[in-house]
Queue: 2 jobs
Job 1
Amino acid sequence: MHPPSRQDYVAITLGQKSSGYNNSKQWRRQSCWRKWKQLSRLQRSLILFTVVLLLICGLASYSTITEKLRGGELETETDSVHPLAPHVLPEPEKTGQLPRPEPPSKKKLPNKRGPPLLLNLQKNGNASNTVEDKPKDSKNKGDEQGVISWRGAVIDTEQGTDGAKDGDAKDDTAADQDIKTVKEAETELLEAVRDSFRHAWQGYKDFAWGHDELRPISKSFSEWFGLGLTLIDALDTMWIMGLKTEFEEAKAWVSTELSFNKNVDVNLFETTIRILGGLLSTYHLTGDTLFLEKAKDIGSRLMPAFNTPSKIPYSDVNIGKGTAHPPRWTSDSTVAEVTSIQLEFRELSRLTQDPQYQAAVAEVTNKVHNLDGKLDGLVPMFINTNSGQFTHQGVFTLGARADSYYEYLLKQWLQGGKKEPQFLEDYLQAVEGVKKNLVQKSSPNGLTFIGELSHGQFSPKMDHLVCFLPGTLALGTYNGLPEDHLDLAKQMMETCYQMYKQMETGLSPEIVHFNMHQGSVRDIEVKLADRHNLLRPETVESLFYLYRFTKDKKYRQWGWEILQNFNKYTKISSGGYTSVNNVRDPDYPSPRDKMESFFLGETLKYLFLLFSDDFSLISLDKYVFNTEAHPLPIWPSAA
Ligand code: DMJ
């Protein structure tokens, strides 16, 4: 007999099995029914209730599992099915190929998936006053307006959501798109500042190369010390912006042309903050010892300034002859000048292991710390180099001649790792002194401002220079100082912004006066002689700090408006930017024909950092900026 084919065997087996199964199923059905009938009514109800309960539980857990599977939360889920898998996120923006600082500690890193930066601007490209998060419904297909980018271009907010069937996947894809849009906006903002820098640099290169300042209208230059001031002030800005070509050509000039062996009088303060500060920070950022050698050279040539009867330095030094002297008309020095060279000289001592620099500036600090003539921690504006005493006493300001005294109290405390309590005490006392004696509100809109005090008489006058204060106050709070410092910083920031906003050119004058009497029509008045703008940095400097610490996008918006107005009223077509005489005349702001070195050293640098979401780019946990925006390291472990 031949063995059964596979088909025959299966048919027979299935047939038998099927028949048996049906019989027993029928039997079981009948017996179940009989048993059910035998149950009491209560028993049947209980069983039915339990079954219904089990069914409900089953359904609920089924939907939870399904949701988790969709959201990719289950451990078994893999990157490939997760719509926001890390490897599909955009690469962090790279500002250049130059070496970059290390990232900050994790807790300070910005949330890269936070609310997107989408500036709500007018279609003509002019910024409105408000910065808003991208509205949620702007992702909907029905949203016809879309979102306007900072340049007036419509950002396609729907891209990436079309055709998505799964609701959760659609949300995640849209979020991914938001992140890309944020990066694109950031890249464009950064590129706009780079463009401004390149334009300023081109003018300097074409008409002022190796000289102190560009005169962009006359296509020439002016000399202050004859040390290539703009070029040195701008070195670290180029490095931070990733402008490698420009940086390399400037470095070549420093290497082959820059000589401090010159019979020239220089101002101790200006040379310290711009040249010594610029060289030290460029050394730190690049590691190139060329800049350290140059820093040592200029640092040692400035030391004769401290050879005074009181050890309070003279304002002027001849760096070729090694002699120093006060200005011709007085033996006084300016308080801000002698107390705002400490960060740089302390750092020079640390790097060279030569204590003479630090000792010289510490002596000044200690003398000023112990002087009579302060008011609640506020200092007068002048100090005599013979007696070592304050002169012209009784006048207190946070503007010219006193401003950076306060800034350097906080920053020296930070530089040294918060281990020198004298700085902190003086700083905290001074802030209280400011609040008690100088803070007022304007009328009619209640802008908070810092006025001046002259022999007990309050004057509602405020220099643009005072706008460094919001940034410094915010930096203090970030480092553990009282929260109300930040509150004052925010109020002051608004005022500094209004000093731009309320002018016809959107640019701040050098000095404003605030109305305080009831019934005033406007808050801010500007005297004829005060209508100039020197391309100063203080407001954008503070915007940078406020944005880093609060992440409130309005500060970027304000910075963007200011940059636009610099471009509109101070940019010279043949290259460079100019200071102007009249910020109240948009038809003819009257160019002054001078581009200050701090426009490249500070103003554009702070704007760039304001627009960068890479908070590790000059982390405020690692660097402290000198008063010319040159970042110096916070001393490691501050031994
Ligand atoms: C810069 O040289 C420095 O910021 C200084 O502290 C004040 N003056 C200018 C900028 O306004």
Note: The radius of gyration is 34 Å.
Job 2
Amino acid sequence: MKKIFVTGALGQIGSELIMKMRANYGNDNVIATDIRKPEEHIVVQSGPFEILDVTDAEKMHTLAKKYEADTMIHMAALLSATAEAKPLLAWNLNMGGLVNALEVARALNCQFFTPSSIGAFGPSTPKDHTPQDTIQRPTTMYGVNKVSGELLCDYYFYKFGVDTRGVRFPGLISYTTPPGGGTTDYAVDIYYEALKRRKYTSYIDRGTYMDMMYMPDAINAIIQLMEADPSRLQHRNAFNVTAMSFDPEEIAAEIKKHIKDFKMNYDVDPIRQGIANSWPNSIDPTAAIEEWGFRAEYDLAKMTVDMLEKLKEKGIENL
Ligand code: SER
């Protein structure tokens, strides 16, 4: 990874990944791209930045060539709830963007990463300790995109020798850039609302368990997988990774340890609840641990302490 080209650089993952990679590999060696360019943004100011719509294959190729990219990190995509509301747009953006990025990687001989998700599983997948290799028949457009993406990335590896690698991320929790249009977003919103209003109304019901991970662990996982010795990789697209699994009551109880008068209410959104119900309760990351040494530092308690502290530092507190 000497010249790293990133799409979706202003998204929830991209914005933190760029800053960590610029610190590790040098500011000028990480080329950030996104569909918009907010001049005051730290990602725009700290190194090369280009406007790129990932459905524009020619521009993606031109830019990657101009910067002599040897690594493509493709992040631009719609999340699950938005994809369910706009399935055709999701197919065109998520799949069109991915195949364009893979083609650039093939043409320029780049190493390649794109995230998959717990959304790549469906109602017929074993729900607890979901194995690395198992049934994947998702019932959401997002899931269809993610499984297709996993297959396409493996195809580019076997057919063209592109060094594609990926992880199935769980819900990602972070304090820098909010996620948008995901099913697991409640687990981010809850921290903001707990600090601002001492209460939160959850659109996900009690007893709904989903895998989650704190952003620093997610960023480390991407870098570690990309740097892993390829001879150790039995799998490629994509590895199960997770740090914790909880339901809304458990995260609320953890927050209550720090904000005593915090109150949780429920107003379940049938669409996002339906998506959550189709996903695993907890996935098994053994393959990632064995093949490239994946390890998560943060559990629910440690993450909650850090989230509340960092959000307070950002001034997210109303009382
Ligand atoms: N966090 C994502 C979503 O909820 C899952 O990959 O859509």
Note: The domain at 4-170+213-240 is CATH 3.40.50.720 (Rossmann fold).
